[in-house]
């Protein structure tokens, strides 16, 4: 069995971060989202992985390498433009051959991994198996319609009027029959080859399409709100570890990780928090659910429920929360501006000025 990991796409919902960085490499708890997926694939016993790459191919390849650090053998498959999930299957046809495979969206995050799902698929080997979860607003997802027995009878891609609240999670398992389906469909109104259309083709052809409803945690980390929520979830599961330096004037409370080479000076850290290697936190407060990457400076500031990427500095700016701050960013106080009122008043005017 192989794995096909999708790491193309423009990441428009995470701009401006993704103007200069691949969305799959934005870190949660100081580790790229993509790495969690690759680790889950390795834990499921899959070693051959094809990675679909686009405009950010060079950055993805530099970060992932040949896959050996994950226990994987990586093959990179270029996609000129993001033309849909089914298009990714289409261009990977030669590499996939006649093997079963799991397709994993590189910006998705699933707590608990996919080992149980892969084992279930290997045992029963349906033609396709999809993951579903209930969501509050299905209009932003592919949506599955189930019959009274819980069988999949229809799929829609981002419908205006969803027939259910079951959204497709970004993990799919297929036998080689899917290749016939992706060749049979036509581009949608979005100009993309939709994987939902290909799976619908299998359903219409009376293929064996099964679903698994997951009750665990899943997020598509395509926007800042979800990225911060995933960061919170991962940090909640970490253990306290202090490998860096913490001076006597500092207070460390709860599940805090201070990586080797990091320094905390005259500051208060309330976990769960991770402070990356080489980062200096001085005269500051860092509150729960915050990840600060390597080689950052936090001075005379407060930071909570946020992600700070590497080589950035936050200096004397008071309180920051619910924020995603990119690489090599400098956050400093604005210069003070004299306060004044400019008035043009007619005769007999009455003006009240709040001072």
Please write out the topology.
Elements (H helix, E strand, L loop, with lengths): L1 E6 L19 E2 L2 E2 H11 L4 E6 L3 H8 L8 E6 L6 H7 L1 H4 L4 E5 L2 E3 L4 H10 L3 E7 L7 E5 L5 E6 L8 E9 L2 H8 L10 H10 L4 E5 L4 E3 L3 H13 L4 E2 L2 E2 L4 E3 L2 E3 L4 E3 L2 E3 L2 E3 L4 E3 L2 E2 L3 E3 L4 E8 L2 E2 L4 E9 L2 E2 L4 E2 L24
Parallel strand pairs: 1-4, 1-6, 4-5, 8-12, 14-17, 15-18, 16-19, 17-20, 18-21, 19-22, 20-23, 21-24, 22-24, 23-25, 24-26, 25-27, 26-28
Antiparallel strand pairs: 2-3, 6-11, 7-13, 8-11, 9-10, 9-11
Helix pairs in contact: 3-6, 6-7
Description:
The strands form 5 sheets. Strands 1, 4, 5, 6, 8, 9, 10, 11 and 12 form a 9-stranded mixed beta sheet that branches. The protein has 2 domains: 2-233, Spore Coat Polysaccharide Biosynthesis Protein SpsA, Chain A (Alpha-Beta Complex), CATH 3.90.550.10; 239-331, UDP N-Acetylglucosamine Acyltransferase, domain 1. The protein is globular and about 80 Å long. By secondary structure, the protein is an alpha/beta fold. Strand 2 (27-28) and strand 3 form a beta hairpin. Mean pLDDT is 88; it is low at 10-19. It is built from 8 helices and 28 strands.
């Amino acid at each position: 069995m192989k794995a096909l990991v999708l790491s193309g796409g423009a990441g428009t919902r995470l701009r401006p971060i993704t103007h200069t960085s691949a969305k799959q490499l934005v870190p949660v708890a100081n580790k790229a989202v993509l790495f969690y997926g690759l680790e889950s694939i390795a834990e499921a016993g899959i070693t051959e992985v094809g990675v679909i790459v686009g405009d950010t191919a060079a950055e993805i390849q530099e970060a992932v390498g040949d896959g050996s650090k994950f226990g994987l053998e990586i093959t990179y498959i270029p996609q000129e433009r993001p033309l849909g999930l089914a298009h990714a299957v289409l261009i990977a046809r030669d590499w996939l051959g006649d093997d079963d495979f799991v397709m994993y969206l590189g910006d998705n995050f699933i707590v608990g991994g996919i080992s149980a799902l892969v084992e279930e698929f290997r045992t029963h080997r349906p033609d396709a198996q999809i993951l579903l979860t209930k969501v509050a607003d299905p209009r932003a997802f592919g949506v599955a319609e189930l019959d009274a027995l819980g069988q999949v009878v229809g799929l829609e891609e981002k419908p205006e009027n969803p027939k259910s609240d079951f959204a497709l999670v970004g993990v799919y398992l297929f036998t080689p029959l899917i290749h016939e389906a992706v060749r049979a469909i036509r581009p949608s109104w979005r100009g993309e080859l939709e994987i939902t259309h290909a799976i619908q083709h299998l359903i219409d052809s009376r293929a064996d399409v099964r679903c698994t409803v997951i009750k665990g945690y899943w997020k598509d980390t395509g926007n800042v709100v979800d990225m911060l929520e995933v960061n919170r979830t991962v940090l909640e599961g970490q253990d306290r570890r202090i490998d860096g330096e913490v001076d006597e004037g500092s207070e460390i409370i709860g599940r805090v990780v201070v990586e080797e080479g990091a320094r905390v000076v005259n500051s208060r850290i309330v976990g769960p928090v991770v402070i990356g290697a080489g980062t200096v936190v001085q005269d500051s407060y860092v509150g729960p659910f915050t990840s600060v990457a390597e080689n950052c400076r936090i001075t005379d500031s407060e930071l909570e429920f946020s992600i700070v990427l590497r080589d950035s500095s936050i200096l004397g700016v008071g309180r920051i929360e619910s924020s995603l701050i990119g690489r090599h960013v400098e956050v400093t106080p604005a210069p003070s501006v004299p306060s004044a009122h400019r008035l043009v008043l007619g005769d007999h005017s009455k003006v009240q000025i709040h001072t």
